[in-house]
Amino acid sequence: MFYKGKRGGDYFADVLVERAIVIEVKCVERLSKEHFAQCLNYLRASGLSLCLLINFQRTKLEWQRIVHEFPEQESLTELKPGSS
Are the C-beta atoms of 30 and 55 separated by less than 8 Å? Predict the structure, then answer.
């Protein structure tokens, strides 16, 4: 992970599929806001937009699909005042 152009640390997702989807695997009584926040941090740090948060502890599989969309560079340019 980089912050202001300097390396700030490493993060390790449980599974990265085709450099497009982060899969975070848990084995807890129930998924919490902290687990959700961890996935969002992975998405922000990696620049990816899709994470599957999966909990194997319960008798029925518990999962959440987390999508974090990033604006495209072209969209940002279009939003600037005075650009035509």
Answer: yes
Report pLDDT digits (tens) over 22-35.
Answer: 999 999 999 999 99
What residues does each domain of the chain span? Answer: 9-79
CA-CA distances (angstroms) from residue 66 to 18, 48, 62, 74? Answer: 17, 11, 13, 24
Q: CA-CA distance, 55 to 73, in Å (whole number)?
A: 35
Confidence (pTM): 0.69
DSSP, residue by residue, 7-73: E------SEEETTTEEEEEE-SSS--HHHHHHHHHHHHHHT--EEEEEE-SSSS-EEEEEE-----H
Beta bridge partners of 2: 7
